[in-house]
Every structure is written in structure tokens, then in C-alpha cells.
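Sample entry copied in:
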Amino acid sequence: MGEEGCLKDGHFHTLETTGQVVHRAGFRTSGATQTVFGGAGVSVASGSATKAASDFTSNVTDFLAEFTGRLDKGVARYEISDADSRPTNAAAPSAVELAAATIKGNSFTDFSSTNATPGVRVMGYLPPASPGTHCALKIGEELLGSGGPLDIRVHPGSTADRFAAQVIRVSGTTHAKNAIIGTPGVHEGPADYVKTIIYTPDTPATDILSQFSIIHFYCIIHNQWLVKVTTGSDTTGATGSFAAYGA
């Protein structure tokens, strides 16, 4: 039977229900606008828009898959340079310093600091934690064990922002180098004090955050960030460590 609305070869071409028409290639709704999967998901306008099945994607699926293809990379590229990564006052950077060292929301940013000065921290700041935001930071240079640690801080202008209680998953290595953020086993809310993720490098050839590693961030609900790490291809991931800090 080749007519729409009929079952052919085990598949519906068009399924008509009360107030709705559902198409094989996607769907069309009537009534209020709906958002699929939230955040930057697929919005379906009232009674008119039809979306293909291939469009059923969102920032959260990209984060979980560690996919960066839909992130904005800028006309040239977004970058936190070596100088940008060293604000005068890390806890209260100037507006210019903060803008230069902030990872762009829904974007892919290169971190080009070499952390060459012993004891001097290098850092990047996350944008304000708005639900559905996915961003990624690529380690563009080798972080030296003889240099200072890398801090990733929540946005100082968003006082309620935190890293969610979680285990930071590290992929691309067989070594168990995951980092626990907050109290293990307590998942009811964020770890209230955790505003900074600290990475301490050791040996570039075997560190978790070797050159070309990528740190993914996703805002799951208001003011709470999740983190995933993909190590670079040239490392075993046996050295280097993460820690959490309140300030």
C-alpha cells in the first residue's frame, strides 16, 4: 500500500494523530514551540517546521561524545596566549584581562601558554554557566613539569557558578587518572566550594594534558559545570594530576 498514512514494508511514511503529523524524515508539531533535548537542541515552530532525523543533536551529545565539530572556532582562531594566561590578580582580574583569558562559550579555544615560569600559575576562565553551553580548551603547547600549574576557574563575575560534584573522566589513556570533584557518593548538588580545577603537570611525554589534549566543559543546569578530558595522542597519561580548589 503506497498511500501516506499506511504501513508499507514495516514502516510508516506518515503517521497522523490528533493535532499532529509525524513524518518519516522527521516530525512536525502543532501547538506551542518545542525544544528537543534542551540547550542548543532542535526548536520546532508551531505547526510548520519539519526537522530531519539527522538534526536530532545537541550540545550535550557533543560533550558526551567529545565532539568539537559544531563549536565556533573563530575567523582565525580563539586563543588564550601565554601573556593572557597570567592575569595580575587571578581572583579579581581586570575586565581586559578577564576577556583575554576567558574560554568562549559554545566555542573551541586554543590554550597557548607554556607555563615556563616555576611557581607561576597559568589559567583560563570559563564563561558564565548558562545551561546547554558546551566549550572546549585545546592544550596547544606542552605544559612543563618545571613550570607552574594550570588553573581553570569559573567566571569571577558569576558568583554562584561552581563545578558540579562529579568524577572528571579522562579518555585516551589506560591509566586511572580520573579526578573526583566534591564528596564521593554525594550527588544531590554541586560541591559548593569548588570554583577552580587545578592541573599540575609532571613529564610532558607521559602527562594527561600533553600537547593537543582537549578539556570539554558543559553546563548541565544553572551555575554547574561538568568536565571531560581527552588526552593527546602522544602520551600514556601516566603522570600529571587534577585537584579541586575553592577559590
About this structure: Residues 7-56 have pLDDT under 50 and may be disordered. The radius of gyration is 22 Å. The first strand starts at residue 7 and ends at 8.
